[in-house]
Design brief:
This protein is of the alpha+beta class and about 280 residues long. It contains 8 helices and 11 strands.
């Protein structure tokens, strides 16, 4: 089973991760549980592997796994190689993180002030809406990059028939034309080994505050799905440069994903609980 959300270690202990489940969103703030779920985003794990990664006693890890299972965040199945063992996996996706350390102080008025009313350019107004919502969330320390990536993948799936071409060069040219026609930015191919795309005037991040981190999760999701369909195998679009990192463009490397890829009872008031 493919991992869910972006793989990697969880952020600082004060953070809260938000996971989708079949019964709604769950907030996970316990540091040990966040470590367990970060591991399961990379791949499925046995109980023994989770104990080693969590660095806690078996009894402690067992309680955490039971609570996560009841909350609907994880599931388990018997190990086909040894029926006495269980293999644990995520049932949903990481959709966002709440982090007090990642709050920004940019004034929303600066974004509204940059818009020229009456310009007759609807794309500029749509960009204003997108960026204002994004910055408003960032002001509160709410990062929704995983959710944006997933939404981008949905868009990429619908977009693919309009830009498809079996030849990679023409396929990239079709994507660049679509981006230009819809005022999403200007795309250039910067290299082929690996395939590297530069995006200038990126609609997603050109006016976002500089945070030192990539910000184009939505674009990344679109490109990931487009090239996965093009190559017929899971493919990642890894952002290595971004306006929010201080560059004058965004850069994506298109590479095959690792085998891990990306990746109960309902409790009352799921939006109010942190597990």
């Amino acid at each position: 089973m493919a991992a869910r959300g972006e793989a990697g270690r969880p952020g600082p202990n004060g953070n809260i991760d938000l996971y989708s489940t079949p019964d709604g969103a769950r907030a996970v703030g316990n540091p040990v549980r966040r470590v367990i779920l970060a591991a399961l985003r990379e791949r499925e794990c046995t109980f023994e592997e989770i104990v080693a990664l969590a660095g806690r006693a078996k009894s402690t890890v067992s309680v955490h796994l039971q609570d996560l299972a009841v909350a609907g965040v994880i599931g388990s199945r018997a190990d086909p190689a040894d029926a006495r063992r269980k293999i644990f996996f995520l049932t949903g996706d990481l959709v966002g993180t709440v982090s007090t350390e990642d709050r920004i102080a940019d004034a929303l008025s600066a974004y509204a002030g940059a818009y020229q009313a009456g310009s007759g350019n609807p794309f500029a107004f749509y960009n204003l809406i997108f960026r204002t919502v994004r910055v408003a969330l960032m002001q509160e320390g709410i990062l929704i990059d995983p959710l944006l990536t997933r939404a981008g993948k949905w868009i990429g799936e619908e977009l693919y028939p309009a830009v498809a071409d079996p030849e990679t060069g023409r396929f990239c040219a079709n994507i660049a034309l679509f981006w230009e026609e819809h005022r999403l930015g200007r795309i250039e191919v910067a290299g082929t080994e690996p395939l590297a795309l530069l995006v200038y005037d990126c609609f997603e991040c050109a006016d976002l505050p500089v945070t030192g981190r990539p910000a184009c999760a939505f674009d990344s999701g679109i490109l990931r799905e487009l090239f996965s369909r093009h190559y017929g195998r899971p493919t990642a679009a890894i952002e290595t440069r971004c306006y929010s990192m201080g560059f004058d463009h965004c850069r994506f490397e298109v590479v095959p994903e690792d085998d891990g890829g990306e990746r109960g009872e309902r409790r009352p008031d799921p939006g109010q609980e942190t597990i």
